[in-house]
Amino acid sequence: MSLPGSNCSAGRWLATNALASQVTLARRIPSIGMQCEICGATEESDIHALLLCPLATKVWVGSEIEDVLWDDNVTTPMDALLQASKVLSLDRLGEYVAVLWECWNLRNRFIFEKKVDNGDALASRAVAFVLNFRRMRDEESPVPQSTDASCWRPPSLGIFKLNFDAGKVGQNVREWGFVVRDHMGEAVLACVTQAEGFISPKA
Ligand SMILES: [Zn+2]
């Protein structure tokens, strides 16, 4: 799969309905409302946040993704991914997931940080990110097959290796992430995220 690691992670989140949209939160915590905080729609479902909300639409307008993907029968992110996988090439599908993820990040920045980005430019930024990742991957030398135990080595065929780390950024931000790689050393799943607040490790 030619997706950047973080976008593999994005695709997995989308496919498993793991997004914390208002509808998803309201199902778990009844006191939370389902309304979209951006446009006022009655229900902010995952698909609303990613494809239908006017904020997301601003991103998609600049994406040049095929119009055929906007179908009334698409009601979940999994539907959207399946439909896209039938229409788009694998490379283009990677760009589609990147734009979906950009819509979700834009929604979060708007709600939690009160930031209003230029949505028109975000789709091209997401696509450029995917293209740059591919170029860097293609230019990378193969993973060294070192016998030194201190060097990272890919796992055996059929086994995946997980590496993770966490740390402090600045005075009050925590960052953590992980990467899962296959026997070729290729990242198949990865995620990096940051949040405010920092708690010192306890002994
Ligand atoms: Zn909305």
Plain-language structure description:
With 203 residues, the protein is of the alpha+beta class. It folds into 2 domains: 5-139, no CATH class; 152-203, no CATH class. Helix content is 43%, strand content 14%. The protein contains 7 helices and 3 strands, in the order H-H-H-H-H-H-H-E-E-E. It has helices at residues 5-15, 22-28, 46-52, 54-61, 77-87, 90-112, 119-139, and strands spanning 161-169, 173-181, 187-196. Strands 1-2-3 form a 3-stranded antiparallel beta sheet. The longest helix is centred in the middle third of the chain and has 23 residues, at 90-112. The radius of gyration is 19 Å and the shape is globular. The termini are far apart. Zinc ion is lined by residues 36, 38-39, 41, 44, 48, 53.
Low-confidence stretches: none
Could you estimate the helical fraction of the residues in percent?
Answer: 40-55%
Distance between the termini: 41 Å
What order do the SSEs take from the amino end to the carboxyl end, as H and E? Answer: HHHHHHHEEE
Largest sheet: 3 strands, antiparallel
The set of bound ligands, ions and cofactors reads: zinc ion
Strand sequence of the main sheet, in spatial order?
1-2-3
Tally of contiguous helical segments: 7
Structural class: alpha+beta
| Overall morphology | globular
Cα-atom radius of gyration: 19 Å
Mean pLDDT: 76
- Multimerization state: single chain
